[in-house]
Known about the structure:
The chain is built from four helices and five strands, in the order E-E-H-E-H-H-E-E-H. The relative contact order is 0.12. Strands 1-3-2 form a three-stranded parallel β-sheet, with helices on one face. The protein is of the alpha/beta class.
Amino acid sequence: MIMIAKNLILENNSSDVKSQFNIPIIDLQGITEDSTRRVEVIEQVLIACEKWGFFQLVNHGIPGGVLDEMIDGIRRFHEQDIEVKKEFYSRDTTWKVSYLSNYALYKSKAANWRDTLGCMMAPNNPPDLQNCLKYAGTYII
């Protein structure tokens, strides 16, 4: 999922390139007021995930400054000296913050080298999944 400030929405410009990609753009405007619109958006997310694996969200309500600071924070982390980043290097999924390279190193047949910064934000003792699912429709998109 790509969340972007409204003023940075991608435009479809004509090009001489023979193939042009159009990243799915999903507009969240009105999903909390209109149940029909909510169903449409859920279907758009499903299709985008199945066909593309990602999408761009607009009208999500997250201020552009928050998104910019998040990106800047990630950039600042990766630009730090390797000695600082080594403190966070781990494949231990119980760490709240971890840094690693080549996520699927021991699972994939081919190396896909990339650095990953992961931040766990779920509670230590998450509530029962069945209870969550029972009430989730009320609180999520």
